[in-house]
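Field log, afternoon session.

UNIT: design team B
ACTIVITY: writing a sequence onto a fixed backbone
BACKBONE:
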């Protein structure tokens, strides 16, 4: 089963969603972690993220804000891509310095290739960090002072053991007033 707090849905393989004809809400696209990996990342985030700012579970963002006007096309593309590919391998392999925060770097050539296909398809509609090549990561601390961030980076870096896993699915959320509203989860094709 996929992590219910993050994705807000029971596990499903090809959900059908109703997308309004003109949807102005940006859409967030996330990689889905297996439950055990999600629990470990959530624990790190709960421990180190400022509690007053920690409104979401740990996550790996593929796109922060795909325009809502292409939501139906976005989910159609994701459904096609996930139906054609096995779960991409991923390695959470290093500590990343975010200046006033700390993240864990994600190495996944298969996931990056899929993201690049989506980025090429929606070229000209993406802005900011969505319009540049991916630097996949999971933020476990943000908006702290620099010494606090550096201390966590040293502590986690000294003991971090890479996590090897596979990405079972992609999730899409509508963002309305800063809140995430699940639009669906698309599972990658099972390995044969």
């Amino acid at each position: 089963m996929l992590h219910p707090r993050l994705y807000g849905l029971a596990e499903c393989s090809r959900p059908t969603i109703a997308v309004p004809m003109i949807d102005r809400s940006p859409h967030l696209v996330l990689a889905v972690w297996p439950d055990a990996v999600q629990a470990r990342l959530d624990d790190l985030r709960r421990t180190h993220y400022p509690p007053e700012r920690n409104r979401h579970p740990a996550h790996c963002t593929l796109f922060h804000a795909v325009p809502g006007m292409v939501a139906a096309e976005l989910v159609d593309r994701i459904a096609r891509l996930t139906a054609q590919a096995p779960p991409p391998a991923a390695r959470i392999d290093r500590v990343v310095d975010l200046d006033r925060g700390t993240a864990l770097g994600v190495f996944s050539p298969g996931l990056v290739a899929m993201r690049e296909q989506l980025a090429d398809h929606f070229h000209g509609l993406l802005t900011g960090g969505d319009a540049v090549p991916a630097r996949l990561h999971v933020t476990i601390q943000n908006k702290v002072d620099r010494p606090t961030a550096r201390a966590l980076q040293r502590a986690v870096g000294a003991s971090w053991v890479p996590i090897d896993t596979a990405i079972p699915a992609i999730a899409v959320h509508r963002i309305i007033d800063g809140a995430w509203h699940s639009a669906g989860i698309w599972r990658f094709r099972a390995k044969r």
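LOG NOTE: Helices lie at 4-7, 35-48, 71-84, 109-121, 146-159.
NEXT ACTIVITY: expression trials, pending approval
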